[in-house]
Amino acid sequence: MHKATFLEGTLRFTIAPNGPILIKAGESSGVDPVLPDMQFVRSQGKIYIPGPSLKGVVRAQAERICRSLDGEDLQRKKQQQRVNVFGDNEPRVPLADNPLGSGTKYSGLDDMDYSSGRAIEDMKLPPDANRTAIVYRRSSFVSQIFGHTSLAGRARFADAQSNDLKPEDVEERNGVAIDRIYGSVAVGPFNYEVVVGGTFTSRIDFKNLTLAQLGLLGLALRDLAEGRVGIGFGKSRGLGRVKVTFNEMALRYPTCTLNNGLSLLGGRQICKTSELAGLGAFGAGEAYNLPSDDTATIPDGLSYVEDEFMGVELKASDDTQVRAVWRACMPAWRREIGL
């Protein structure tokens, strides 16, 4: 199923500091007294925000959302649904992993010890045709998007590059670390470099997501855009707040054409032209436990167009339209969490 591409998309967005931000470089200033103790990460002399830093923030927020909404009743219900189809060996799987868990002792909210990567490794599955499907459906909902040690992620975050930083957008500040017991200075004073202006542009490429997964990705990015989540160093000190503008989202269906609706090249209809289709709508993922009802109403002002080469595309061209696509995915997300 996931060796083919049924749905792929690109989200382009702009990040602007809403206060000071610092993504620390791995190396220190060394013996050079001119350089600050903590420098912003650079590539070829230019400040940038690494893609893994963005991915880590978005994934962590997606996990917080899932842990807030997860529960034993929901997990048992989902487990029973899989048992009815695939047999009694299906484990209970939470919406989000415990990255430090063992993978084998999970028994509810009192013992959140399930780690998808370790659990799959413990199963020692043979390398047959069904292995990929088993790995996918026994992975947590968040890991199905971002991946783990036995499953490749389906969302890729590019570095956020900036070409408009001015000298006054980069400042040097001073700080100290306070001893929590004695209230005196434990480390410092030290100085660090922050960015307070300019913009950074980046993109997220994703493929083969269900509408519920796309909706969760949108929720986490919305929280980042609205300042509920910070990035980088010193978030508890007031650093790390950003503003995010979503510039464009393109959803592409490379195996489809417009024929009285969105249809596969072989002729089978996927959905109406007024509906948005997620991966489950393609009906080829029974072994992956994908939702069969994976369509939503396309927001007003958006429509499919045929690509000039092959396939069909739907494009949201500004922040308002991108958020409208995510709102359209919310019913699928609610079904995923049992609401």
UniProtKB/TrEMBL annotation:
User: Which residue ranges are recorded for the region named Disordered?
Assistant: 89-108
Instruction: Name the Pfam families for this protein.
Output: RAMPs
Listed GO biological process terms: defense response to virus
What are the protein's UniProt keywords? Antiviral defense
- The UniProt record lists the keyword Zinc: no
Q: Where is the CRISPR type III-associated protein domain?
A: 37-243
Task: Tell me the InterPro entries matching this sequence.
Answer: CRISPR_Csm3_endoribonuclease, RAMP_III_fam
Matching PANTHER family, A to Z?
A: CRISPR SYSTEM CMS ENDORIBONUCLEASE CSM3
Q: What is this protein called?
A: CRISPR type III-associated protein domain-containing protein
